[in-house]
Design a protein that fits this description.
There is one protein chain. This protein is mainly β and about 270 residues long. It has a single domain, classed as monomeric porin ompg (Porin, Beta Barrel). Helix content is about 10%, strand content about 60%. A hairpin with a 7-residue loop joins strand 14 and strand 15. The longest helix has 27 residues.
Amino acid sequence: MYKYIQTLVRRGLVLTGLLAIGAGMAAAREMTTDRPDGTESPFTVPAGRVQLELDFVAFSRDREAGTRVTEWQVAPFNLRFGVSQNFELGVLVAPHVVVAETPPAGPRVRQAGFGDLTLRAKWNGAGNDEAVAMAWGLMADLKLPTAADGLGNGRVEGALILPLAFELGRGWSGGAMTGVEWTRPAAGVNRAVWINTFVVGRDLTETVGGFLELTSATGDGAHVATFNFGLTRSLGPDLQLDAGVNVGLSRSAPDLLLFAGLSRRF
């Protein structure tokens, strides 16, 4: 019995030590976010932590063939859960979306309601807790058709994404993302959209950073390209504010997107 108790004590001490190490790693890991740029990061939320990333509000406008389309999203958010040191789960929610279309002739059409919901899984392959030349990961998205009538296509869709992060020197860092999005624009129609992004950023002061980004999506008969830029403001190790602008470079892209939001780790 005495030896059995000794064994239990030793195992308990080992487990306690491992948990302490894990907690220390979680506390020491710098907060990284999947916003405000469109390039997702390869880094995951530490085990046992929760991270909220949201827009206070996002506004976009577009004009094509004489029809003006505006869209407001109120408090869309990405809620991320650290499952292990290198794996996280998340859910992306659009609580309230307002879309208004104004044709060159005819009445203005306005639709509002809940948006689509996306489930996300992210795994980090390298770079979470060790210095590497290039951090990378894998992400899988599953979009569920929860949007109100007129705000979505009512179909399940998904994506598989490879995000990268690397240092460029002289204070600059870089990121890139490539992936395939499976879309179903109409009943019985399945298409693959190839997504590519590239972003560079740097610290402007001890608490303020900036980024520049190019994004491209091709494969569904249209090319959607944007030029994005914005700023971040750190308010501590677990809180960041941001704001940015996306400018459409192709006819199929929204002409302009404005947003401001925050990221908070708990």
